């Protein structure tokens, strides 16, 4: 029972003028009691009831009364409820009972404020000054207070600070016996430690000696103090420069370099501190001067920023608990440390994995495997695959388009095809920035794109998922494991890889799917943000249906956009595909006939790796126009095996020509007037106008030619007149000279 819980009971007064105890005046205490020398007990001692005495002695009340009648304790009689009652003098009880009472009354170990107990102590009558106990306890480090918490309660309970003396040997042993019986091992006191401690406290006159003195020389080395200050500066500086070098030389090597400098300055190696002392001093100085962990600073200097961030770096702990599952995704690449047989089975390869993780539930939604280095096309395939993946809740429904994505800073993630090549964008449809709209994220109406902090792997949760895959899948499979570095590749692993004793491709894919299924259904730690739920359980509880995409739209978007160009007579010429494939690439679709020569531009979306087909959009309105096939009109000359392709291409040309002829005939045979018919109408209008003006129509005709008659009375016909006119004209031309001006 602590002192604060026992305010209404009696406590030791340690020589102060106490209250009237037991109902009898102090002068009525028998003289024999006053002469009893109980170390630590005041003259005005404590009187107990029969029940209290029985509790301390561990016997019944009846046994206590019997002992009182027998005179074993100093007693007195008082008037109480029910008649006359015994009161027993505490100091007349056995030592164990007295010690038990004091431990109950004075509890200084269980978090009780020591000044509550010391408040009633008359400092003028104390042999030891305890006025600074509270201040010392507040200022002393925890590791130096252990000594105080061990010895102070015992010395206070036996009255040592009042008299400055310990009880006699036999009595002190009994007190220690009682004290240690119910104490934990670290708080038990050995007799041999008490006399030296009591002597030191008496000499100091205060409680300073009750506190430990560890750490007084913290950051200092007496071995350094023995070296000349100028030589010390050069020796220690040499060690620091080499030890904090990016090449990370060993501690012993840095010490030897410093020792070599010391010998040149006349300081023998035997006088130098050991290597660990150099290191400890450097750590302490860096901590004191910069206010940061000296060990962390040294680690960063020796192993670089990336290693420092992994071990000591701080990171922003994002709280994803307020968002719904399926609304935020994170992407990244990782190369597996596992050799697997190629699909053909001829050799072994290490796959690259492009994965999509839901940040709310930590559910892996989709992944793409590739033997080469991933590019933006793999990211597009992973994104659209995750959109198309079943949501696992509603039958036949997609996971849908997320509200936002969280991307790495690699150039493949910042590509024009996937994210619009901006480091931080909020895609707004109808914006003048065509790159945002033409990207896959823009076309699918993903509203938010966030890029992680560069060179900061802690920023992306998927990095931790990849570490789980490394430990729970790659290391567990074992066969074909390459390790994270050359030192991790044992001879046995190398031999298995050399003998192709690794997983087949199909077996590897099934094993990877099994691991992902296990991780998605594995319960999390109850202390984590998921509170013991698995990824699938969090997904099921917090998922809200996202917008879906038709399958044909997803197939159309699985490519990269090309340049804006006009349609030529043979189609759209794609120079990017030509550079990739090393041969001409011209796309054609039947819809392109209507776009030839209209002056408008289009752009394609196609897979550079498999460019056989492309999807075309209006560069101005972003409207989907149609698809086209590569090199539709290209046929190898004089190749009989290409007859079918030739017939197809030539048939298309003929169809285009026939369509044009049919269109011409439809127009010519359709409603409307020809030009001749229009002029007939105009002539009729002119005749009517002139008739209104002159009252009659003046015929616009040539004067009638006089009829020529001969002796035979023959009249020339029109043909004969024309022939005669031709002869007259030729005769006139012959009369004109070459030098005459026309």
Explain what the structure shows.
The chain has 742 residues and is α+β, with helices and mostly antiparallel strands. Among the domains are: 83 residues, Arc Repressor Mutant, subunit A (Orthogonal Bundle), CATH 1.10.10; 90 residues, no CATH class; 215 residues, Ribonuclease H-like superfamily/Ribonuclease H (Nucleotidyltransferase, domain 5, 2-Layer Sandwich); 69 residues, Roll (SH3 type barrels), CATH 2.30.30. It is built from 27 helices and 15 strands. The strands form 3 sheets. Strands 9, 10, 11, 12, 13, 14 and 15 form a 7-stranded antiparallel beta sheet that branches. Strands 6-5-4-7-8 form a 5-stranded mixed beta sheet, with helices on both faces. Strand 14 and strand 15 form a beta hairpin. Helix 4 crosses helix 9, helix 12 runs antiparallel to helix 13 and helix 13 packs across helix 14. The N terminus is likely disordered.
Key attributes of the depicted protein:
15 strands, elongated, 27 helices, Nucleotidyltransferase, domain 5, Arc Repressor Mutant, subunit A, 742 residues, alpha+beta, single chain, 41% helix, disordered N terminus
């Amino acid at each position: 029972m602590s002192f604060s819980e026992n305010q209404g009971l009696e406590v030791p007064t340690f020589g102060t003028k106490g209250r009237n105890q037991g109902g009898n005046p102090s002068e009525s205490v028998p003289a024999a009691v006053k002469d009893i020398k109980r170390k630590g007990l005041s003259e005005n001692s404590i009187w107990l009831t029969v029940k209290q005495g029985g509790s301390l002695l561990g016997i019944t009340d009846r046994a206590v009364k019997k002992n009182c009648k027998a005179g074993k304790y100093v007693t007195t009689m008082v008037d109480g409820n029910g008649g006359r009652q015994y009161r027993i003098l505490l100091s007349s009880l056995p030592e164990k009972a007295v010690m038990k009472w004091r431990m109950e009354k004075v509890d200084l170990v269980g978090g009780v404020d020591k000044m509550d107990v010391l408040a009633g102590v008359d400092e003028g009558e104390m042999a030891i000054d305890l006025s600074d106990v509270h201040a010392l306890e507040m200022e002393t480090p925890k590791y130096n207070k252990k000594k105080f918490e061990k010895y102070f309660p015992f010395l206070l309970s036996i009255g040592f600070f009042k008299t400055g003396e310990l009880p006699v040997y036999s009595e002190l042993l009994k007190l220690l016996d009682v004290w240690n019986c119910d104490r934990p091992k670290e708080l038990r006191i050995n007799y041999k430690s008490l006399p030296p401690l009591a002597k030191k406290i008496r000499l100091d006159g205060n409680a300073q000696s009750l506190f430990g003195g560890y750490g007084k020389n913290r950051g200092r080395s007496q071995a350094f103090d023995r070296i000349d200050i100028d030589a010390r500066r050069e020796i220690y500086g040499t060690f620091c420069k080499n030890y904090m070098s990016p090449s990370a030389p060993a501690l012993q090597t840095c010490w030897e370099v410093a020792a070599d400098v010391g010998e040149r300055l006349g300081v023998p190696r035997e006088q130098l501190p050991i290597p660990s002392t150099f290191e400890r001093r450097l750590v302490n100085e860096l901590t004191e001067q910069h206010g940061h962990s000296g060990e962390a600073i040294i680690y960063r200097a020796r192993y670089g920023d990336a290693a420092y961030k992994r071990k000591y770096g701080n990171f922003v702990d994002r709280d994803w608990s307020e968002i719904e599952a399926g609304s935020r995704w994170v992407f990244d690449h990782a190369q597996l440390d596992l050799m697997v047989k190629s699909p053909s089975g001829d050799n072994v390869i290490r796959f690259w994995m492009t994965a999509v993780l839901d940040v709310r539930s930590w559910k892996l939604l989709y992944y793409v495997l590739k033997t080469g280095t991933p590019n933006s096309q793999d990211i597009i395939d992973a994104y659209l695959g995750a959109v198309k993946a079943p949501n696992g809740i509603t039958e036949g429904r997609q996971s849908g388009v997320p509200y936002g994505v969280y991307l790495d800073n690699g150039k493949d993630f910042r590509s024009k095809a996937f994210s619009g090549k901006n480091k931080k964008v909020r895609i707004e449809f109808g914006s003048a920035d065509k790159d945002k709209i033409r990207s896959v994220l823009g076309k699918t109406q993903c509203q938010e794109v966030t890029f992680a902090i560069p060179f900061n792997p802690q920023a992306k949760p998927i990095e931790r998922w990849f570490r789980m895959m490394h430990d729970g899948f790659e290391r567990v499979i074992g066969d074909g494991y390459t390790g994270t570095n050359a030192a991790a590749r044992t001879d046995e692993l190398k031999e298995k890889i050399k003998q192709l004793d690794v997983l087949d491709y199909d077996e590897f894919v099934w094993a990877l799917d099994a691991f992902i299924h296990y991780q998605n259904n594995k319960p999390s730690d109850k202390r984590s943000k998921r509170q013991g739920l698995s990824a699938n359980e969090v997904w099921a509880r917090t998922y809200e249906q996202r917008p879906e995409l038709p399958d044909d739209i997803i197939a159309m978007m699985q490519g990269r956009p090309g340049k804006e160009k006009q349609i030529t007579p043979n189609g759209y010429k794609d120079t990017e595909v030509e550079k990739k494939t090393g041969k001409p690439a011209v796309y054609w679709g039947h819809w392109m006939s209507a776009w030839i020569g209209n002056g408008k531009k289009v752009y394609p979306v196609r897979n550079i790796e498999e460019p056989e087909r492309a999807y075309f959009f209006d560069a101005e309105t972003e409207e989907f126009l149609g698809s086209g096939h590569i090199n539709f009109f290209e046929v190898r000359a004089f190749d009989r095996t290409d007859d079918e392709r030739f017939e197809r291409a030539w048939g298309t040309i003929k169809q285009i020509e026939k369509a044009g002829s049919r269109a011409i005939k439809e127009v010519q045979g359709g409603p409307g007037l020809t030009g001749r018919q229009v002029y007939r109408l105009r002539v009729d209008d002119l005749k009517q106008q002139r008739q209104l003006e002159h009252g009659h129509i003046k015929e616009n005709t040539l004067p009638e030619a006089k009829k020529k008659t001969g002796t035979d009375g023959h009249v020339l016909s029109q043909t004969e007149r024309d022939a005669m006119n031709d002869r007259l004209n030729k005769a006139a031309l012959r009369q004109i000279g070459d030098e005459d001006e026309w």
